[in-house]
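Pilot study result, target chain (111 residues):
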Amino acid sequence: PTIAVVSQALHGVGYAFFFASAYIYVDRLAPPDVRHSAQTMFAIIMLGGGPILGGKLNGWLSEMHTVDGVMQFAPFFRTLAWIGLVVFVGVPLVAFALVGVEARRAVRARA
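Predicted structure:
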C-alpha cells in the first residue's frame, strides 16, 4: 500500500506540472487576441474529449477481450499499452515534426 500511495502522490504532482506547462505553452503560442479561446479549446480536448473517447474505447476493448463471459486482462492491457505508446509517443513526434519548427519560430519571435 505504501508504494501505491507514493506513486499516486507523484502522479498528482506530474499531472499538475503537465497541465501548468501545457497552459503556459498554449499561452505563448497563441496570438494575444485568441489566447483565451486557445486555452479553452485545449481544456475541452484534454478534459472533455479524452475521457469521452477513453470511455468508449475501454468499453469496446473490454467486449473485444471477453471470452465466454471472462475478461482476458493480459491481452486487454497489452492492447492498451500499444495504444498508449502510439498516442503518447508516435502522435506527438509526428505533430512536432509537422508543426514544431514553425511553432518554435513563433515562440522565439514573441520572447
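One observation from the pilot: The beta strands are 66-67, 70-71. A full batch analysis is planned for the follow-on phase.
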